[in-house]
Amino acid sequence: MTAILKAAKGNEAMSDHSFTLALCQIMTREEKQNTMDRAEAMVRAAAENGAGVVALPEMFACPYVRGAFLPFSEPADGESVRRMAYWAREYGVVLVGGTIPERDGDRLYNTCFVFDKSGNVIATHRKAHMFDIDIPGGITFKESDSFAPGDDICVFDTEYGRMGVCICFDMRFPELIRAMARRGAELIVAPAQFNMTTGPAHWELTVRARAIDNELWFAAASAARDNDAKYRCWGHSTVAGPYGDVKAACGETEQILYCPVDLNEVDKIRRELPTFLRLREDLYRVAD
Predict the structure, then answer these.
(1) Structural domains of the chain, with CATH
(2) Would you name the residues annotated as active-site residues?
């Protein structure tokens, strides 16, 4: 705790593009109110430890099983969004609110709401790529049986700089992340829940690849693993810097992962190793 507080005080002397990022790796409880109360406690603790930007995981207050999505769903102006707006305002953080099952008419979306320090919704992202997989000897899951896909690329401005959000399976698509980078995002946050098959194989690799592809910060906020749940997630929330190096990572248990972020590193790395600045879009187009 002491080391974290010292780091937070040190941030006062940093540039406006530097801040502490906190990923709240929460374990989802069966009782939604208990999870929401725990999430608030973690956001509050992160703020008290100097975090300026706080992120929650995918489906942080909803069990990741098909039978839970509709009963746990809410409209965009529902209780969960109102509570998260309060947390952002009360604790003075930019809050990337994980995801909730958002109900819009007769459709469900896997949706992330982002809040500024005044509690205003400044961005919304509906998961664009549905997690439909069938891995022999691993996992079978068809997210499109429950959710409709979103159609937008999510980038937004904060007091620290321009950021973006994608959700879990979205991060496997480099075209989406490149589009976000081309729109100016210097930090991309991915609320996610990789499973026990894909997590060990691809989690850290994908986080680092998306960071180095575009020479930006990439933060994947996972839920904590519940070994008694039907869907067991990998955990291991991770932050990679624009050089592709792991800046912070944790295990599978419930905890808050802190990482000092300096968005000035994006320009520095791009000048020193100008991959992103030397894109040849004229060569990459695929003919219709």
Answers:
(1) 2-277 (3.60.110.10)
(2) 58, 127, 168
